[in-house]
Amino acid sequence: MAPQPGIALVGTLDTKGEEIAYVRDRLLALGTRPIVIDSGILGEPGCPADVSREEVARAGGHDLDDVRRAGSRGAAVELMLEGVRAVCLRLHAEGRIGGVLCLGGAEGALLGAAAMHALPVGVPKLIVSPSASGRRSFGPFVGEADVTVMHSVIDILGLNEIARAIFDNAAAAVAGMARDAGRPVTALGERCVGITMLGQTTPGVMRVREVLLEAGQEPVIFHANGVGGPAMEQLVEAGALGGVIDYTLSELANSLLDGIHTTGPDRLRVAGRHGLPQVVVPGCVDFFNQGPREELPERYRERKTYFHNPVATLVRLSEDEGAALGCMVAERLNEARGPVRVVVPVRGFSLADAEGGDLWDPEADAAFVGSLRDALRPDIPFEEVDAHVDDADFAELVADRYLTLLEEPVHAG
């Protein structure tokens, strides 16, 4: 008989005690072993905890009284989430949990999310919250992890027919995932290569993938939408990828101009820091992402734009911005300790950046290329190719450059 999977059940027991107790009993009835973790800070717990709030605070390196004196609700939550994360990581490392379920409002959900973001991809993660709706950013809940977010429909206060239906579904969902799937991804293997892509580079990446598969590699594609690139690099940090083909760098363009796909300062640095082989293609460096066309800020109204869909508009970079972006890309690649090749298609960086296309601007493209070439470390191979980023021949060349890179001896810098 298969062992009963453990489920970390996270909630603020001072305000959600009755609801957590109900879900705990449902998880028990479904054949799992719930471990109740109290992420509350102030009032008295409304049901017993397997891991008390005092233990949670200590796990994060704090005393609960110090957390309570943090000065604001937000500051206290920040301290407490360190403990929730540490507790769940320990329980997972000990093999005591195979999934995490959190019930909470805005702050309660963030406390559970902190633990979920630290656990490997493949470990079931479910947040039930009234904040999972409306015009809200879901980044703080989902992060770069495989978190499932369920709208509670009503606020989490008391049991009634709607609450029981939602909680029953949530318990069944996490129990089913933990029991019947729930395989944590830690090491994908040396043959696993991460590749970044957007719709504007899809034809090229599809051909790269085909060539790599024929060569016995295992390509994994990441959507470069402000989350996909960092998610790929998080797997690099975890030692789960053998190499990278960064085919789509629009996240850096967004970071330069504060577009909606912006990322943090580590983007394009992680693979190099870990010495992984990487081939870099400046796909989609011609634009940054904005929202609906009718909401475009006035300062961008005179620029070339591309209507991507009703909620997404691509805005062309200027020559000066292209030059600045080239310097940014070079600066980050220059830190690499592993093998790097840069392959540049000089006939356009996206589907819309082709001759006659809405974003076609050869002068701005040339400014990017020249800046990148001049600022790049002299020992990093830099190759300009008379092709478009989505040409099949160009994609095949990129794949070949990656496969050749794998055969070269590694000289850490």
Structure description:
40% of the residues lie in helices and 18% in strands. It is an alpha/beta fold and 413 residues long. The chain folds into 2 domains: 6-180, Uncharacterised protein family UPF0261, NN domain (Rossmann fold); 192-407, Rossmann fold (3-Layer(aba) Sandwich). Helix 13 (362-375) links the parallel strand 13 and strand 14. The mean pLDDT is 93.
Give the neighbour order of strands across the main sheet: 7-6-8-9-13-14
Strand/helix succession: EHEHHHEHEHEHEHEHEHHEEEEHEHEH
Number of discrete domains: 2
Rg from alpha-carbon coordinates: 24 Å
The largest β sheet comes out as:
6 strands, parallel
Distance from N terminus to C terminus (CA atoms, Å) equals: 52 Å
Rounded mean pLDDT is: 93
Strand content: 15-25%
CATH architect. name of the largest domain: 3-Layer(aba) Sandwich
Oligomer: single chain
Question: Could you tell me the number of beta strands?
Answer: 14
Low-confidence stretches: none
The first-level CATH class name of the largest domain: Alpha Beta
Structural class: alpha/beta
CATH-defined superfamily of the largest domain: Uncharacterised protein family UPF0261, NC domain
CATH-derived topology of the largest domain: Rossmann fold
